[in-house]
């Protein structure tokens, strides 16, 4: 039974993941989970603050024994009480504290979305870089295959005395150089896979074929999630500064305490009939003078708000420039594809002609090796340009404030 269970599980672990699956895995990683728990913590803290503004009920009891009994202090006495207290007015601080926490929660919610989008963009970049490295690997393997074939052909000619040793050594040198390049590409592939495994938290196997949606020109752009987070953070700091002004105003508190007494006097002359008491009270507290403490607290918080506002405006302007640059980079990538297609066509045509001349002994192997290298380089560049275009589309979506996981097909 265990063997059958293992057999059924193996395909699940070995199946390749497309880009959408990789992104979905990555935005559920421990880093996102940590940010989500931090958000939940703030929500719980807010609930605690709101509960603190509700009426509070306290109960208590005590028992005492004295060695000197008086009319007001019996030999043995017990007391139980229940008290309810409510802060009727706190100078308007409560509404500012509520506003602060609500903005803080929204800011953290946007931060979580921003983190997910950042991770998604990284995964998309790794995914298409991986595909580019794979295309480079395939091109390099084909180049090595051609060089191996040419080496075998020249070796036969060398044995027959129709070519020279230096011609063979040139092929061997280029072949060994290509093998080194292949190992470097392999290292890049392994590095990308390790980075993806680090982000997703599990082994990955990449399946090609995914594409990024292209943002339609008339689609309205949204503010990026990180900018929305900064905007809500501004609201939080402004509310915090307003809350400091509440110290200029009075606070009003209502209390009601019911107490039950059980007094045991040794001297009957001291005994009284009082066994319970209810006291209702309203108290007002107003700080009239505190050497400017409230003023400086307010100014400190307000300057913190102004500082954050300047940073927000800077980041907002930078985001607009980043979007413009992303669009320009996308247009350049489309031109690169056209250029790469033309280069590949020219390199392939030139290679076919030069290969025929070389095999007929009309040119030396230097020209042949150059044309071979140019052909496979052009093939690799075309695929790299196509993959780079997908990354550029993702960048436009990112800077337009769109969720990347919703724009993968």
UniProtKB/TrEMBL annotation:
- What are the UniProt keywords, alphabetically? Cell outer membrane, Membrane, Transmembrane, Transmembrane beta strand, Transport
Superkingdom of this protein's organism: Bacteria
Q: Does the keyword Membrane apply?
A: yes
Give its localization. Cell outer membrane
Q: Which cellular component appears as one GO term in the record? A: cell outer membrane
Query: What molecular functions are annotated in GO for this chain?
Result: efflux transmembrane transporter activity; porin activity
Q: Which InterPro entries match?
A: OMP_efflux, TolC-like
**Pfam family, any one:** OEP
Q: Which family would the database say this protein is a member of?
A: Belongs to the outer membrane factor (OMF) (TC 1.B.17) family.
Name this polypeptide is given: RND family efflux system, outer membrane channel protein, TolC family
Q: Which organism encodes this protein?
A: Arcobacter venerupis
């Amino acid at each position: 039974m265990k063997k059958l269970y293992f057999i059924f599980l193996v395909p699940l672990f070995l199946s390749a993941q497309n880009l959408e699956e990789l992104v979905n895995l990555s935005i559920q990683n421990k880093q996102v989970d940590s940010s989500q728990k931090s958000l939940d913590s703030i929500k719980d803290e807010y609930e605690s603050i709101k509960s603190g503004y509700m009426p509070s009920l306290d109960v208590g009891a005590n028992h005492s024994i004295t060695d000197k009994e008086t009319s007001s202090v019996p030999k043995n006495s017990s007391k139980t009480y229940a008290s309810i207290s409510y802060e009727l007015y706190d100078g308007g601080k409560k509404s500012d504290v509520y506003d602060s926490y609500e903005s803080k929660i929204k800011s953290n919610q946007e931060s979580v979305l921003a983190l997910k989008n950042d991770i998604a963009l990284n995964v998309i970049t790794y995914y298409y870089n991986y595909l580019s490295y794979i295309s480079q690997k395939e091109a390099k393997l084909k180049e090595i295959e051609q060089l191996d074939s040419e080496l075998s052909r020249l070796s036969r000619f060398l044995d027959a005395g129709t070519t020279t040793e230096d011609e063979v050594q040139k092929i061997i040198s280029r072949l060994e150089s290509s093998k080194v390049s292949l190992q470097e590409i392999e290292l890049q592939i392994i590095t990308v896979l390790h980075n993806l495994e680090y982000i997703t938290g599990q082994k990955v196997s990449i399946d090609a074929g995914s594409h990024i949606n292209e943002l339609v020109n008339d689609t309205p752009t949204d503010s990026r999630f990180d900018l929305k987070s900064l905007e809500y953070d501004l609201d939080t700091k402004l509310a915090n500064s307003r809350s400091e002004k509440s110290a200029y105003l009075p606070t009003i508190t209502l209390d009601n305490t019911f107490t039950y007494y059980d007094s045991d006097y040794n001297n009957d002359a001291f005994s009284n009939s009082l066994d319970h008491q209810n006291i209702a009270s309203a108290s007002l507290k107003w700080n009239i003078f505190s050497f400017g403490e409230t003023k400086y607290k307010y100014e400190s918080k307000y300057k913190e708000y102004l500082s954050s506002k300047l940073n927000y405006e800077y980041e907002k302007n930078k985001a607009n420039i980043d979007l413009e640059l992303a669009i320009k980079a996308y247009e350049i990538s489309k031109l690169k594809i056209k250029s790469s297609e033309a280069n590949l066509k020219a390199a392939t045509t030139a290679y076919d002609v030069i290969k025929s001349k070389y095999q007929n002994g009309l040119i030396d192997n230097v020209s042949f090796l150059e044309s071979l290298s140019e052909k496979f380089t052009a093939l690799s560049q075309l695929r790299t340009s196509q993959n780079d275009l997908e990354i550029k589309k993702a960048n436009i979506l990112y800077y337009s404030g769109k969720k990347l996981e919703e724009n993968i097909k």
